[in-house]
Structures are given as structure tokens and as C-alpha cells.
Q: What sequence folds into this?
């Protein structure tokens, strides 16, 4: 890897484009290096993973709205659940919302955080539109993951309240550039345009959280496709987009005196970043994964949760301030809060997991579940505190030490105390039950049951298994079609513009 030192430069300085971060990203994307076998296998896993959560979310209102928007725009890309083809950017939009709606797919956490699986819908849609095959798609996805993960390693957005999809737009543009075999200069312009059009604040994940939480990454993917289109037509971007005197670093991040260190593969170096990412067993924000497993473990040692006086979760800075009481969001204790808000309340999640000893992507968030009097009582007894050691482990560069867990201190009304901790989720590569291909397939079949026919499930899984053999124009095989009777169960929605 090459570490790129990225900082602001005044307009009067001699700062050639070959030294811009966007140009370095474009060079990585244009590098013809082959994709290693283990990266390719993980790409297949994540295509299956995305299909799993899309099946679980396909009848939900935000996904239905996005799908109906896409239906108004014919083209050459597919939309999950539908027969027919639609415009690439709107297919990416609809599929991106389906993938993201339940917060149930893969994650990478470092200085910043991300869901790199968000790269797959727009890169796939663009490849379908272009009539490409499996090899090109694999190469594009490998780049998308690599660029997003490397930006997450080097540039923290959330400390400046910038939403993490600002790293996704550039990674999508880079991934499509790889798949299309575009030159460095074209990809450079597309990366700059994508960053410029996808920068937004974190209010989408603060307070009362709306369906935009799912739409935001889909929008970034859509913008990545449009940026590629304009760049291919010869249009340019603001530059230097990160380092400019009025650019991203100077005014939206740490300012003109700060230097960011962004690692990127050297020429000829394989793209392996996807191997450092991890998926979810539970439909909840990633920092909730280990606490859910911890709650399930501790449940067997508690006779009656009504005997609990207080619960304190000692955890990382990020967990405390984003999904814990450090956020100071009263909505995180509101039983009438949106599903998206409850998904970002570790207090609610730990309470329900402790009571039920399990977690379900629908039942655990149901309004009747959130309104149980005993749950509300327990929920309000839970708080979080930042523990410097958990924060250090969260940011560790050592995979064996990096952790996203917590220590739970449960104090009972009689004064007795129960303590336990869990560093990584059971499904994490270092966890009790690491996810491999059988677990991804099981997740898919579980979430697709009653939604996708068994024959369609089998056909899709076979297509993914043979991904590298799919010929030009065959990427439509990666879509899943649903029976019209299933789609008819989707909620009615008001008419829009299209």
C-alpha cells in the first residue's frame, strides 16, 4: 500500500493533478491487476447477502416507493423483484434502497464507518446497462470496496457531522470506471463529481430518523452513475476536490492545516479490502451486533428482568455518541419512534434482546413490541458510557485486536451485580460463529422464504456461483423476479411526479 498525505493547497500553488487524491484513486481504478480468488469469493458472498436483505425489505414502504419510481424509467438494468429492465441510475436507486432499508448487510469501521455493500447495486446496474459480463462486474466491485474502505481508513467524516455516503459516491464512480475499462483521466473527473454531489450532513442519522437513512446511499450510487456518464462525455469536476482552497478538507473536514493519510494499493497490487469487511447476523446498526449477542448470552443468567435496577454499557466513543445515551437524543427512548430510530438506539436493542434472548428483523421492531410496559421500564434503565479501552480497540489497526463490543454491568435491586463483555459479534470473522458461504446461503434462504420461490432461489444461487463465467449481457441472471401475487402485498403509495 502507498500512503497518500492529503491536505489543502492554495489555488496559487503548483499542485499538479497527478498529486491529487482523486487522481490517485483513478489510477487504482484503472490498474488492470487481476482480482484474487479470495476477493472474488467474498464478492459472491456479498451479492448473496444483498439479495437476502432485499428479499426481507421488498414489501416495505420506502423500498416500494423507490421501485415504483424506477418502473417509470425504462432502460437496460434490472430491479429486484421485477420482470423487465429499467434505466441504470433508477435501477441502482431502487436496489440500493432495498439493500439498505433494514440496515442488515455488510460494514467496515475504522476512522470512519461504512456499508461497502452499497457499491454493488450501482456497479451492477451500470454493468447491466453496458452489456458487460461477470468478470467485469467482479473487477468493478473489487475496486468499489477497495476505494471506500481505504477512504474510511484515512478520512473521518462523522466527527464533522458529514454523512458517510460522501465516501460512497467516489468509490462507486471508481468501481464503474474499472468495470468499463475507462482511462485514468475520465475516472478522475467522475470521482470528483461524485464527491461534490454526495456530500451531506449527518442529520439523516440523528434525532427522529426517517426513511432517508435508506435512500441516502442509494442516492450516492445514483450520483456515481451520473458522474461517470458526464465524465465519459468529456465533462469535468471541481478540482482539486479534496485539497482545494475552498474544497472538501478546507471547509467540511478538519481544515487547511490538517493532513489526512489515505492508504491506496500500489500499481499492480491486488485489491483485497473486501476481506476486511464483515456482515451482520442481526438487522441493527453494526455496533449493536456484539451487544445483541452479549444480551442473548446473559439472558440465561437472569431469572426475571424486572429485578434489574440499572444497566450500564461500557463501550467505544462511537457507540456511546451515535447510538447510545451520549447522543442525547430523547427519541432513542421513545416507543413511538421510527424503526430507523430504534435501530440506532442501543438501549432499546439491548433491552429487547435481553428480554427475548433473540433478535428478529421485523418482530423486534414492531410497534406492539416497543410499547410493552415492561420493555419501556427496562429500556429506560439502560445507559452507555465511553470506555477509553473500547475506543482504542475500535480504532486499532490490528485485526486481532480491533473490536466493536461492550461490557455490560447489570445491577439488580438487591444490590448484586452481573458483568460480562463481548468484543466482536458471533458472526464476525473472529467470532463464535463466523460467516462463510453456508451462513450467507442460510441467511438468504431464511429471509427469502415466503417471498422468493424455491426454484428462483436455486436459480439465483447457481448464477452467483458461476459469476465469473457469466458472458456479456448475462448479468440479468443476478436479478430475482417475484411472483406478482407477492408484489401485490406491497403497500399502496401516493402518486408522485413520474
A:
Amino acid at each position: 500500500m502507498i500512503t497518500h498525505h492529503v491536505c489543502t493547497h492554495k489555488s496559487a500553488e503548483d499542485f499538479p493533478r497527478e498529486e491529487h487524491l482523486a487522481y490517485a484513486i483513478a489510477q487504482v481504478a484503472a490498474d488492470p491487476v487481476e482480482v484474487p480468488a479470495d476477493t472474488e469469493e467474498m464478492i459472491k458472498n456479498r451479492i448473496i447477502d444483498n439479495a437476502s436483505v432485499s428479499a426481507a425489505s421488498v414489501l416495505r414502504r420506502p423500498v416500494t416507493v423507490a421501485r415504483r419510481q424506477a418502473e417509470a424509467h425504462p432502460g437496460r438494468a434490472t430491479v429486484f423483484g421485477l420482470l423487465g429492465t429499467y434505466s441504470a441510475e433508477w435501477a441502482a436507486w431502487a436496489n440500493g434502497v432495498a439493500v439498505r432499508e433494514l440496515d442488515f448487510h455488510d460494514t467496515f469501521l475504522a476512522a470512519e464507518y461504512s456499508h461497502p455493500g452499497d457499491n454493488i447495486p450501482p456497479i451492477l446496474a451500470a454493468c447491466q446497462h453496458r452489456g458487460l459480463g461477470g468478470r467485469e462486474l467482479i473487477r468493478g466491485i473489487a475496486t468499489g470496496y477497495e476505494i471506500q474502505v481505504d477512504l474510511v481508513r484515512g478520512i473521518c467524516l462523522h466527527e464533522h457531522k458529514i454523512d458517510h455516503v460522501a465516501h460512497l459516491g467516489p468509490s462507486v464512480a471508481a468501481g464503474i470506471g474499472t468495470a468499463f475499462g475507462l482511462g485514468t483521466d475520465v475516472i478522475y473527473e467522475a470521482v470528483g463529481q461524485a464527491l461534490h454531489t454526495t456530500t451531506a450532513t449527518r442529520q439523516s442519522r440523528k434525532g427522529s430518523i426517517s426513511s432517508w437513512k435508506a435512500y441516502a446511499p442509494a442516492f450516492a450510487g445514483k450520483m456515481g452513475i451520473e458522474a461517470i456518464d458526464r465524465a465519459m462525455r468529456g465533462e469535468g469536476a471541481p478540482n482539486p476536490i479534496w485539497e482545494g482552497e475552498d474544497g472538501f478538507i478546507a471547509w467540511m473536514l478538519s481544515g487547511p492545516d490538517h493532513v489526512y493519510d489515505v492508504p491506496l494499493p500500489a500499481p499492480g497490487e491486488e485489491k483485497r479490502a473486501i476481506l476486511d469487511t464483515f456482515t451482520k447476523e442481526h438487522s441493527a446498526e453494526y455496533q449493536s451486533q456484539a451487544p445483541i449477542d452479549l444480551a442473548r448470552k446473559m439472558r440465561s443468567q437472569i431469572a426475571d428482568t424486572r429485578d434489574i435496577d440499572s444497566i450500564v454499557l461500557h463501550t467505544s466513543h462511537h457507540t456511546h455518541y451515535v447510538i447510545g445515551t451520549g447522543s442525547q437524543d430523547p427519541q432513542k427512548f421513545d416507543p413511538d419512534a421510527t424503526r430507523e430510530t430504534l435501530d440506532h438506539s442501543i438501549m432499546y436493542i439491548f433491552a429487547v434482546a435481553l428480554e427475548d434472548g433473540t433478535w428478529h428483523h421485523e418482530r423486534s421492531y414492531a410497534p406492539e413490541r416497543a410499547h410493552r410496559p415492561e420493555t419501556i421500564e427496562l429500556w429506560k434503565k439502560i445507559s452507555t458510557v465511553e470506555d477509553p479501552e473500547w475506543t482504542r480497540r475500535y480504532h486499532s489497526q490490528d485485526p486481532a485486536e480491533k473490536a466493536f463490543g461492550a461490557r455490560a454491568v447489570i445491577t439488580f435491586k438487591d444490590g448484586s451485580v452481573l458483568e460480562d463483555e463481548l468484543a466482536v459479534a458471533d458472526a464476525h470473522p473472529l467470532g463464535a460463529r463466523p460467516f462463510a458461504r453456508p451462513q450467507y446461503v442460510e441467511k438468504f434462504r431464511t429471509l427469502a422464504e415466503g417471498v422468493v420461490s424455491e426454484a428462483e432461489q436455486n436459480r439465483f444461487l447457481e448464477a452467483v456461483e458461476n459469476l465469473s463465467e457469466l458472458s456479456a449481457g448475462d448479468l440479468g441472471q443476478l436479478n430475482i423476479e417475484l411472483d406478482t401475487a407477492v408484489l401485490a402485498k406491497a403497500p399502496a403509495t401516493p402518486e408522485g411526479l413520474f
Remarks:
- The chain has two domains: 2-276, 286-422.
- The radius of gyration is 22 Å.
- The first helix runs from residue 21 to 30.
- The longest strand covers residues 308-315.
